[in-house]
């Protein structure tokens, strides 16, 4: 039992590092010659290749019916293609550390969507307070009342990416759970679909004259294989061993990792107002996760749908 727990904690640490470092690899790829669309395509293609290989080794088959593939198009757009592109667009002007913090607002958007569509009934005051506190922290970060505030198209793109994840999780929870497809195969199929969607957009938004250097290529390979592909697999293992609640706690570590790596590797600096806003956002997210009913066992088909990624 002790060895199993230690193994799960180690996987959680590795998962937080891989996910949290994704913002660094995006920044390095952008700074060295790749465009947001090219990054989106490359990480989707590499991630799907990793997951497909893992699925084949586990003897899991891709979906075989049109209905599931049709739903995967919607899921791949909102959970992969769109947020991957928006994070690339946002990080052209916004620090990687701040991008990681804004990614942590996904639970706030999920709760807000649940309230709007009626799936979040009997909202407890403490969770409502967390929702309001989280968005107040976001407002504090952007400081729109200052002429030099961070509120801009790139910043809004990062918030849009987090909101897109929330939309995707709501849709996936309703339409892709219980389809009979094993989790690794379903994740591989979803990233394969995202690869196709981003490939269709490449001729429109990615100039062919771009010449990335070796740093950009290394960054996007690490991003695709480790921060996109392997994270899905590790997330499934954590859920299988410890449950969905334990896996969700990894989300609290992502901003810490992204800020630390941005400061150490890229020399990014954050003012006191932004740091205070980050703390308020994370406190709000923590409150929205208080007093929930004990989680029921998660079906295998839901194992890769519970935690957001960068």
Distance between the termini: 32 Å
Average pLDDT, to the nearest integer? 83
Q: What's the count of strands?
A: 0
Largest sheet: none
- The helix fraction, in percent, is over 70%
* Helix/strand order, N-terminal first: HHHHHHHHHHHH
Give the helix tally. 12
Low-confidence stretches: 294-308
Rg over C-alpha atoms, rounded to the nearest angstrom: 19 Å
What is the multimeric organization of the chains shown? single chain
Specify the structural class.
mainly alpha
Structural features, described:
The protein has 310 residues and is mainly alpha-helical. It is 74% helix and 0% strand. The chain has twelve helices and no strands. The chain has helices at 2-31, 36-57, 66-90, 96-103, 106-117, 125-142, 153-175, 183-205, 214-242, 244-248, 250-266, 272-288. α6 (125-142) runs antiparallel to α12. The longest helix has 30 residues, at 2-31. The protein is globular, with a radius of gyration of 19 Å.
Describe this protein with a few key phrases.
310 residues, mainly alpha, 12 helices, 0% strand, globular, disordered C terminus
Layout of strands and helices, then pairs:
Elements: H1 2-31, H2 36-57, H3 66-90, H4 96-103, H5 106-117, H6 125-142, H7 153-175, H8 183-205, H9 214-242, H10 244-248, H11 250-266, H12 272-288
Helix pairs in contact: 1-4, 1-9, 1-11, 2-3, 2-8, 2-9, 3-7, 3-8, 4-11, 5-7, 6-12
